[in-house]
Amino acid sequence: MVQLQEQADNEGYEPLSDEQLSEAVCGKKFDYLSGLGVCKLPPRLQATSNENASALYNELESTKTKLQTTQTELQETKTKLQNTKNTLSDLSSRLN
After folding, report:
1. 16 neighbors 28 (Cβ within 8 angstroms)
2. Is the pTM of this model over 0.85?
3. Which residue ranges have biased composition labelled Acidic residues (predicted)?
4. How far, in Å, CA of 89 to CA of 95, rounded?
């Protein structure tokens, strides 16, 4: 963009407007993109394909199952820990 602006200045033309610069760099189809300013729009992606959606759904279900298993294991570990604490407390009171 800077090169085009300098080229216009060096050749004695009026400085190019932002719209003219954008059209020269990005092509005729341009729009404003948040954070990028005026620029060519990326091609639109089609909605997620059924295969991709199915794979994502399967991964989600697998993750849910793993989470549930982990939560069950955690609860069992907490119960074992509490039982161990109770046993230690009983043993300690017997020694005293």
Report:
1. no
2. no
3. 8-20
4. 10
For 36-85, the pLDDT digits (tens) are 666 665 566 555 567 778 888 999 999 999 999 999 999 999 999 999 99
Handedness of CA 21, 25, 31, 32 (dihedral sign): negative
Inter-residue contact 63 to 70 (CB < 8 Å): no
Cα separation, 93 vs 23, whole angstroms: 85
**Distance between CA atoms of residues 68 and 74, nearest Å:** 10
Closest CA to 30 of 38, 43, 21: 38
Whole-number Å distance between alpha carbons of 5 and 17: 9
